[in-house]
């Protein structure tokens, strides 16, 4: 399973903070996982299509072609605004 | 002995106490601290409070990495990063950065580097409550540019 997390505006717009998804060919990379989730509904498609969306794999910010493996933690979130 | 103190907490912090911690060694001729606060206006909205969300686990990891990067660039002795999460009202403290070093240039540069990198790399998000309602704070290009300037 892949543990997927959502933060801030992404979490709020999707109405979910986490979910689990079976690892497979449709989750092979961060981008594949994004597209798989985006196919859930128009709302998910719209939120996950944002060109500002960031992805972290196992708590490290990554590029969209990063490989995802079974057991990984993948988080989607908007640009950070702390400090 | 060098110390790195990295905390993510809901509680407020005490600046004199934090200063004492990093200013205790006679080898350090310079102590630089920065405090970020909730200010009254942002993008024309009158702010009443901010709620800080973060990514537990990743936040601490990124702050550790930023601290290590600062130590690799400048000869620092003590280093403290405290970032609050949860709801903070107008005027409250959000973040504390403090460093000590033998000389001021390293301390000034490291402190500025730490806050510039924290603002663009650590997974914190601000939800703003203002006279116009609630909204997520947008990332600023100027912050991104400030962080990029350290990479040249």
Q: Can you walk through the features of this model?
A:
The complex is a heterodimer of chains A (83) and B (152). Chain A is an alpha+beta fold. Chain A has 3 helices and 5 strands; from the N terminus they run E-H-E-H-H-E-E-E. A 5-stranded mixed beta sheet of chain A has the order 2-1-5-3-4. In chain A, a hairpin with a 2-residue loop joins strand 3 (54-57) and strand 4. In chain A, helix 2 (30-38) packs antiparallel against helix 3 (42-48). The longest helix of chain A has 9 residues, at 30-38. Chain A is globular. Chain B is α+β, with helices and mostly antiparallel strands and 152 residues long. Chain B contains 4 helices and 9 strands, in the order E-H-E-E-E-H-E-E-E-H-E-E-H. Chain B has helices spanning 15-22, 58-73, 104-121, 141-149; strands at residues 3-9, 30-37, 41-42, 45-54, 76-84, 86-89, 93-101, 124-130, 133-136. In chain B, the strands form 2 sheets. In chain B, strands 3, 4, 6, 8 and 9 form a 5-stranded antiparallel beta sheet that branches. In chain B, strands 1-5-7-2 form a 4-stranded mixed beta sheet, sandwiched between helices. In chain B, helix 2 packs antiparallel against helix 3 and helix 3 (104-121) packs across helix 4. The chains are: A alpha+beta (83), B alpha+beta (152). The A-B interface holds A 5, 7-9, 12, 52, 56, 59-61, 75, 77-83 and B 36, 52-55, 57-58, 61, 83, 94-95, 115, 118-127, 136-139, 143. Chain A: One of its GO terms (cellular component) is molybdopterin adenylyltransferase complex. Chain A: GO terms for molecular function: nucleotide binding; transferase activity. Chain A: Keywords: Molybdenum cofactor biosynthesis, Nucleotide-binding, Transferase. Chain A: This is Molybdopterin synthase sulfur carrier subunit. Chain A: Belongs to the MoaD family. Chain B: This is Molybdopterin synthase catalytic subunit.
């Amino acid at each position: 399973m892949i543990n997927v997390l959502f933060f801030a505006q992404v979490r709020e717009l999707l109405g979910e903070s986490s979910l689990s998804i079976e690892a497979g060919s449709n989750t092979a990379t961060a981008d594949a996982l994004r597209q798989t989730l985006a196919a859930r509904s128009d709302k998910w498609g719209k939120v996950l299509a944002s060109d500002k969306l960031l992805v972290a794999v196992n708590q490290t910010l990554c590029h969209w072609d990063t490989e995802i493996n079974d057991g990984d933690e993948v988080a989607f979130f908007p640009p950070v605004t702390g400090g | 002995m060098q110390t790195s103190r990295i905390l993510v907490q809901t509680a407020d912090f005490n600046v004199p106490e934090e200063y004492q911690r990093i200013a205790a060694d006679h080898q350090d001729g310079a102590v630089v601290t920065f405090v970020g606060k909730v200010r009254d206006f942002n993008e024309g909205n009158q702010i009443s409070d901010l709620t800080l969300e973060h990514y537990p686990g990743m936040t601490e990891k990124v702050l550790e990495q930023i601290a290590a990067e600062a130590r690799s660039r400048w000869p620092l002795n003590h280093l403290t990063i405290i970032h609050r999460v949860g709801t903070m009202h107008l005027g409250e403290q959000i973040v504390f950065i403090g460093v000590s070093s033998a000389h001021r240039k390293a301390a000034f540069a490291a402190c500025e580097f730490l806050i510039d990198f924290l603002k663009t790399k650590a997974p914190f998000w601000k939800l703003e409550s203002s006279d116009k309602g609630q909204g997520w704070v947008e990332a600023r290009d100027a912050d991104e540019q400030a962080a990029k300037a350290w990479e040249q």
